[in-house]
Amino acid sequence: MSRNVNGSIPCRPLVALLDGRDCAVEMPILKDVATVAFCDAQSTQEIHDRVLGEAVAALLWDGITLSREDLMKFKALKLIVRIGNDTDNVDVRAASEFGIAVCNAPGYDVDEVADSTLSLILNMYRRTLWLAKAFAEERQIIGPEATREVAQGCSRIRGDTLGIVGLGRIGMAVALRAKAFGFNVMFYDPYLPDGVDKALNISRAVTLQDLLFHADCVTLHCPLTHHNQHMINDYTIKQMRPGAFVINVSRGGLIDENALATALKEGRIRGAALDVFEIEPHNPLTGPLKDAPNLICTPHCSWYSESSCRELREMAAQEIRRGITGRIPDDLKNCVNKDCLPARMPLFPSAPIGSLGAASLAGFHTLADSINGVNMGNPAFMPYAPGFLSAMVAQSPVSIPAPLPTMLESPIVANRPASVATSMGMKQMQHMAAQPNVPQHPRNSSTPKSNCSTVQDAVLSAET
């Protein structure tokens, strides 16, 4: 085990993967700046108290939700990175009030989602899935009459109009691919500047109704907000061309599934392909879509490939690293609530003031490197589960500085003496000056809130 020049054990911030176990991709990126622990939890009730008290950064997929009440349980948390595009499972407004930066990892799946979209569109037009099912059922298809019967509904692509709702990264990638297949491409996106249509040689619809009226196939590539919930509903379906196709690989809440099921049964919509649903995980045996004809459903996997998954995890880990080695939120690349947070000093200063002094200025204390779980390098890779920590410590071949919980006098930024806070360029609070050593929970009502009244529109317009 390495030691500092003064012989003290190096102290690194604790980063927790809240709802997973595999840290093989993240460890090479973080191992020299942080101790990584996995929790494999589905709620904060399953997270070890040590993690709740010491974790300064958290990684999470979509398997756990962090509400205001959940965020209050973390005593040192300063950074949350969602491993994915959206932050729907994090209360971003509450995190902003508590001074916690929230980040996502956009753009990793542009090619995969665009390719999946075209695959679903081709299935609608060429009915590949249904033809494969007919062949698997050993139906004999001999002669033009049998072919016409089994392939009924197959359509020519060239000359049809593809309507794209939302021309962000993925929407633009779909547009470029669709043009190669012979589609006339039209898009609706009120947030893009003029001239995008001319640059891409595609058409622009002034209103959503205009796009629905002209499109033979409508594909959705916009984020879900409270403004566009059930964008595709009974009213807008009636504005579509009779027999149009609908594709959704964006967010399930964009479509009213009851209205879509009715339109499919009545033939107003010729076919639909969905990778996302209002309630996930989707059960094809229940819900309004269970008996709908001409429907393709996939389990929210259009984003996935071996390459995209690895790139996603690397992006998330790099964001954690930027937060640890740089300044929050200034050095974060994908912070969705940056405008709601004050400029801050480095999370973990690297000045040569000793390991414990650095940890004190950083506002947290961490487990020492002497706690070794799975030997994946230094720092330790530690699975946290009730009862596991004590057993792991007991088996550790290296002694642990005692008492570990008292390595620091002040576990969080808000409890530091006024002199330390002032030296870090932080706003001095009156109650700190009067009672600098009185412990105070970082999430209580006296914590100064952000002057940002709402989460910025950037959160709502993040690329899907």
UniProtKB/TrEMBL annotation:
Principal subcellular localization: nucleus
Pfam entry (one): 2-Hacid_dh
Assigned keywords, A-Z: Nucleus, Oxidoreductase
GO molecular-function terms, A-Z: DNA-binding transcription factor binding; NAD binding; oxidoreductase activity, acting on the CH-OH group of donors, NAD or NADP as acceptor; transcription coactivator activity; transcription coregulator binding; transcription corepressor activity
Localization in the cell: Nucleus
GO cellular component: nucleus
InterPro entries: CtBP, CTBP_dehydrogenase, D-isomer_2_OHA_DH_cat_dom, D-isomer_DH_CS, D-isomer_DH_CS1, D-isomer_DH_NAD-bd, NAD(P)-bd_dom_sf
CDD domains: CtBP_dh
Domain D-isomer specific 2-hydroxyacid dehydrogenase NAD-binding: start-end pairs: 119-302
Biased composition (Polar residues): 442-456
Region (Disordered): 427-464
Superkingdom classification of source: Eukaryota
GO BP term, example: regulation of transcription by RNA polymerase II
Domain D-isomer specific 2-hydroxyacid dehydrogenase catalytic: 23-337
Assigned protein family: Belongs to the D-isomer specific 2-hydroxyacid dehydrogenase family.
Protein name (record): Uncharacterized protein
Originating organism: Trichuris suis
